[in-house]
Amino acid sequence: MIPGIGSAAQSDDSLCNLADVRASAFSRLIKRMLKRATVAEVSRRVEEECGSFHVVYPLEIKKSDTQEEIEKKVKGAFARLSDPRWWRRYFRIKAGRHMETIIRELGFVQRGKSAYLSNWGLARWRAGQRRNADLLSSLDAENELGETVSLAECYKRSVSNPVVRRNELMPRMRGFEELATDMGYACLFFTLTCPSKYHAQLESGGRNAKFNGSTPREAIAYLNKVWSLIRAEWNRQGIKMFGFRVAEPHHDGTPHYHFLLFCHESECDSACNIFGRYALAEDGKEPGALEKRWTVKKIDPAKGSAAGYIAKYVAKNLDGYAVGVDDEAELLAREGADRARAWASLWGIRQFQQIGSVSVTVWRELRRRREALHEWEPDELEPLRQAADAGNWKLFVELMGGATASRKEMLCRPMYFETEAKESKYGEAVRRLIGVWLRPVGHAIARQMLSTREHVWKIRERGKINFGVPELEIKAFEYCRVAAAPPPLDLCQ
Predict the structure, then answer these.
(1) pLDDT tens across 409-434, in order?
(2) In this structure, are residues 193 and 282 in contact, taking their beta carbons and an 8 Å threshold?
(3) At what angle do helices 306-316 and 162-183 cross, to 10 degrees?
């Protein structure tokens, strides 16, 4: 049971009411103490109060932070703890993961019953998807010119849409493969899994006697630690890799990683030895570790493309396109993909990540500029924009500096603007992406900047002429609050 929440299966409305109570209590505590104590003393007292509720104090201080920066961060933490929306999100995440953990430990998350996550978790995710779709369809974005666009249409065209995300990933994968061919690089397909103690169910079915109660969040933390050690060792050995990582669940919800990576032919053996050494560093002598914990396959171009090889894993975890049947879950691919996305959302797991190479943000920003940069000086940026606009990832990477270029060597970098603290509801400065900047070329000293976000957009309820008024903010706030309740818990699912 989660302290301060009660039953994890309680309704969403109950969680919202609890969030209101908790925010109000912290707000009163902070205001009362600030009248008679310093900010630092109040911070220590508030941190103790968070600990009594088993809540992580939302404050992260770096060694390089000045006293002024620390005070701003502390005030931001106070603002979060006084905000019902912050508590609402916290309770929703904690309650959902706690309930899913219980169901998983009881053995209801497995192939043949409810692969990847419970039916309760899937229904809860789908209810949230419907709630978000209803909200987006009721809101418009309007700029300073009076131009209006539906937020639902914005979603359909963004990478949040699984189809758009898949369609964006595939050209980049194909472009990497073409680059690797030109560079004489080999393609390696690695798989990294967790030790048996992280798995709740056996692959053949039935409870795993070695299971230590780890959640998928703890399992992904293990994988990330191993992967960081592998990459660090590769860097020390001068082995340069680029490609993609895919995170997907086993049938019982335990995550594992697939890597499609390109490296120089002469470095393949060293790269594989390093990968295997770190993959087996923990419990490497347990039965089946050598066969199950990590695998590597060298892709033969004569038998098929590398992009085609990983395309199945991408579609299988997004929308099931052209997959047919998900063998791991023993479900139709579309159903399995929904479950994989719901699993990733529930546990906060990033499904896809580019490894190495140039900035994807620059690629996306330049694709926003459809008109040619005729009068731009120097003229290196227009060919880059054309490559991005045409979806030619290979040419884009080459123009940016190459697949193995360091950050300093890239032709372009994202450009951010830091807003004033008053613009944030938590009183903190916010960095906003506004365009790209071109690093100095030749004898040039100044950086050339290109804005890709020329309009200021505001959100308003559809049909309203005046936007940004308090009534609208309250109405949108209440709409988010009255969410669909989680489905009834059925342990006989």
Answers:
(1) 999 999 998 876 666 788 887 888 98
(2) no
(3) 160
